[in-house]
Structure formats: structure tokens, C-alpha cells
Design goal:
With 221 residues, the chain is of the alpha/beta class. 55% of the residues lie in helices and 10% in strands. It contains eight helices and six strands, in the order βαβαββααβααααβ. The chain is globular and about 45 Å long.
Length: 221
Amino acid sequence: MSGIILYGHDISPPVRACLLTLKALKLQFEYKHVDILVGEQLADDFIKHNPQHTVPTLHDNGVWLWDSHAICGYLVDKYAKDDSLYPRDLVLRARVHQRLYFDASILFMSLRCITRPMFKSNVSIVPREKTQGVIEGYTLLEKFLTSGAYLVGDCLTIADLCCVATATSLGGVIELDATKYPKVSAWMERLKKLPYYEEANGWGCKRYMDILKTRLTAIVS
């Protein structure tokens, strides 16, 4: 046993980003389900290790980390046989960071601004100003993919793994139009061919989108 424990819930896009990274690295790990829908992340023992009480949370031989982007970078730096998923080249790593920050500040935030009121207060109507954030995310992804098959050139990185977990989940709000965003659509299909994709992201993403489609009754785009 490697001593790696990931705490999470499959519906969470950031959790699925970590699952994709763990699977890409072929690491042995224990996965502990935290039911965020009933508030298990608010337990005193969990908050003791992660004051933000968020998933994913990683425990690795005494080290506690949270935030999917930090976790994914840490895992590659510590356990990968090479740096292809998280290049050490200064320029390439900076580009990976830019895409990760884009995921955190724009792509995932556009989703969180919609789903947090839904989960917390049963808000079922999504106004146009919020759906525009989803459209902005799709539009920027399309532009990022003009220079290669992946988000940083022609090599798969953790930027792809983090962003695809979020981007596929956006379909629960606004379905991706493959004719309008052909490069994003092709990129998603490329990643779906990864041997570990369905287990790490596909199933959880489908469940997440089903929840959104059931609970969001009016979406203004």
C-alpha cells in the first residue's frame, strides 16, 4: 500500500481530476467516499485536516493537501517516472499553470456559481449572466486548442485532466455544440479514449449532469 488516500465524491469535477491523475500515474491508492450532499465534509475530524472542508483532500504518508490543482502537481512531481504530465521546462510549466488557473478562476467558477445556489438553497433558475460564464469557458477552450491536440501543445498534461473534468460537467448546464466548438469536442473525444477515463471521470460526470438536469428547471442562455 502506497499510503495515498484520496477523500472525495465522484460527482465533484475537481475530485475526478485527481482520479484521472492518479490513474494516469498508475498509482495504488485508497479512495474514501465523502458524501458532500449530506455534509460529511463538515465533520470535526475532516476539518482538522482541511479547514476549508473541501473535496478532494489528499493524505499521503502524513502529508495533507487539498485543491485539485495542487494535488495533481504534487502527485506528478513526487511519483511520475517522467515530467510529461507536468513539464519541468519553465515555459511549458508556466503554460500548464495558466491553464490550471483558468480552470480554477473561470471554467470551474462558472459552474460553481450555478451549482452552489442550487445545492445550498435549491435555486433552480439560471440567469443569463451566469450561463454566459459557461459559454466564455467553452469559447476560451476553443482558442487554447488552436495550437495543438492538447491544452499545452501536443502532449497530455494535468491541465487537460483538470480542465476536462470541469468542461465535461458544464454539459449539465449548456450542452457543448460540436459545430460551434469543434476543437473542444475533438479534445474531449480524444481524452475519452484514455483507458482510465470512464472509471475516473465518465461515470461520475454522467451522475453529476443528471443531477443538474433534474434540479435546474430554467436555464437562460
